[in-house]
Amino acid sequence: MTSGGGKRVLELNGIVKDYASEAGTFRALDGVDVAVDQGEFLSIMGPSGSGKSTLMNIIGCLDSATEGAYRFDGVDISAYDEKALAKLRNDSIGFVFQQFNLLPRLSSRANVALPLVYSGVSLKDRNARADELLALVGLEGKELSRPSQLSGGQQQRVAVARALANNPRLLLADEPTGALDTKTGAEVLALFRDLNAARGVTAVIVTHDPGVAAATNRVVRIQDGRITYDGPPTEQALAGVGHAYDPA
Ligand SMILES: Nc1ncnc2c1ncn2[C@@H]1O[C@H](COP(=O)(O)OP(=O)(O)OP(=O)(O)O)[C@@H](O)[C@H]1O
Ligand SMILES: [Mg+2]
Question: Is the distance from the beta carbon of residue 54 to the nearest atom of ligand 1 less than 6 Å?
Answer without folding.
Answer: yes
